[in-house]
Amino acid sequence: MDPRHVTTFKTMCPMNCHPTLCGMTVTLHDDAGVTISGDETNPDSKGFLCMRGKAAHENVGSQKRLLTPQVRAARGTDAWSSVTWGAALDQIAAHMRRVGRQRVGFWQGHGNWANDYAFGLKRAQMDRFANLYGCQVWNPAMICWGLGAFGVGITGAIETSTKEDLGENSEMVILWGANTVSQANTLRHVEIAKRRGARVVVIDVRRTEASALADEVVLVRPGTDAALALGMMQVIIADRAWDAAFVAENTIGFEMLAANVGDMTPAWAEAQTGVPAAQIVALARSYAATRPAMIVIGGSSLHKGTNTWQAARAIACLPALTGNFGLPGGGIGPRHGGRSHGVGFNDVSAADRRPPGTYIPNQMEAIVEALESGAVKVFISIGSNALSSFADTNRFRAALAKADLVVSYDIFANQMIREAADIVLPGTIWLEEIGAKSTNTHVHLSDRVMPPAGETRPVYELYKGLAARLGVEDVYPWVDQEAAMDAALDHPATNHATVETLRANGGRVALNVSHVAYPTLKFATPSGKIEFYSERAMSMGLPALPTTAAPDGTEDGLILAHGRTFAHFHSFYDHARALPTLAGREGEPDLWVAPADAEARDIADGDSIEIWNARGSFVARAKVTPRIPAGTVWIRDGWPGLNALTDGASVLPLAALSEFPFSVGQNTFAARVEIRSATVGA
């Protein structure tokens, strides 16, 4: 091939495996095809690119792409007609005018951040429209990492240390509910630490892929991680192994914590968690005796079910008890949604210009209730399959059906579009628009390198078009998206970088951050200290001290747990079904089942099975394996229809929802299930 017809450039992978965000080298060929490889010059990923990133080239030229705006002929049908963007925006704006601004709600997800994750400009632009217009807008952190961040935030430890600090300095690494094969750049630094001699412990509900790297694996009953942390604290305090100087200087409520955990002995913790008491004692003593020790806390999966926020709350107390905060190699390591000390960008969301109104809180159940009651009549979903992301799918589907209009902006059809949308707007892929992504140490440019396919448009054109029709001023005050990026980059953390300076510097800039979280030991609490005892939590109607919910031994069935796999991350790209490589890797859902549980139900490995409870049912394939304890079953989260099984009850009171910049109004997602052959009753 003539090299004059080949263009090679650096960009970022469009997957959002934060804190893993990988650089990629993309080659455009004269036939419009692309080839992709890892960018060896990227300081975060250093040439690594997993199968998800390598499959991203299948977005280009895909026959499954949404390429024109479409309007459904009537609900309950699969009859669609193509319309112009102007006609689609006219229809959406007409509905918005008719119902009034406060009955319009915007929701977005990972699919909107393929070249924006952790930089946050595209989310801020949606918020800007909603703030200036005065409609409902919700933060999707409530279905993801928000509950875990609330737990560490109440304790005071919301910042994270970097992967580089972990690799260079940690002498012990605990991967707590963190299957870091989905955070490959973190895992690489765990391997570096292990080669130095660091001890690696994996705590999870199953023997994950990351367990292969571990010196020790601790298997816990789902929903009992807080009890394990409390049991470890009891041992450390009973042994008088806590860091007395650090605790006296930098914490509040130690005496109350000590009294609180006094009866939470290893025997008590064993009954809660299923972890042998002797293993709990050994783990606690090893952690207390090893400095520096770092805990990497898992993302959304750890905080679904009965764990909720209390798991992160209790785990975050351990580094304070042992004096590991502010210490190179200690504290809490990289996690999904976490930020290093000093990271920040200029906020362009115009939150201070939001008009008075009756606004529905960032609470998943509140959103569903608003749809059910008619308080929200127009629901606009941006890059998200909200139908599969919310718990209790059947209830949410029925609630959406009560809306006057449901709109989806995306690049592929998904469950939300097939089952609920009235209007579909086609979005651009990451190579067709300019953006940036931020790791915990750098901002990386993702430049536009090819024209939008068909009639696809970047999402800010939606806000501009609606603003023009509704008479909302100043929604897009920039001459173009590059100028908007410059406005967001104008922050001390970036040295006031611009798109041009990023381009001149190879497409990236190092952030002004500390690799160690809380280097000044000034923590994110009203007292400025780690709060074992939190009056702030008590004022919200929450426990002032870390605690745990006792497992309900009276419940029947198996505990359903969720997590990540190599081929999947969140629901975009039609749950990866639109990309043949990823769809081929995971052709159907696999439910991990312990041999004893399978034998008791006459189920063999590979059988087609029905997972069911009172809320709904889901068909999967049995993966019978000794890598999961009896009483627990595990499945990759996000399969369309899976959340028909999960509980939609709220976790936190409304008083807790405005405490932090992110929202935390998550459903419990808890589920006890039974399984049987899918042919039973057929």
Protein architecture, described:
By secondary structure, this protein is α/β, with parallel strands linked by helices. It has three domains: 70-137 and 344-439 and 442-475, Rossmann fold, CATH 3.40.50; 146-340, Dimethylsulfoxide Reductase, domain 2 (3-Layer(aba) Sandwich), CATH 3.40.228.10; 558-677, Barwin-like endoglucanases (Beta Barrel), CATH 2.40.40.20. It is built from 24 helices and 26 strands. A seven-stranded mixed sheet has the order 5-4-16-15-14-6-7, covered by helices on one side. Strands 21-25-22-24-23-26 form a six-stranded mixed barrel. Strands 10-9-8-12-13 form a five-stranded parallel sheet. A hairpin with a 3-residue loop joins strand 17 and strand 18 (442-446). Helix 3 packs parallel to helix 18 (460-470), helix 5 packs parallel to helix 6 and helix 14 runs parallel beside helix 16. The N and C termini lie far apart (57 Å). The mean pLDDT is 94. Keywords: Iron, Iron-sulfur, Metal-binding, Molybdenum, Oxidoreductase. Belongs to the prokaryotic molybdopterin-containing oxidoreductase family. It comes from Boseongicola aestuarii. Residues 6-64 form the 4Fe-4S Mo/W bis-MGD-type domain.
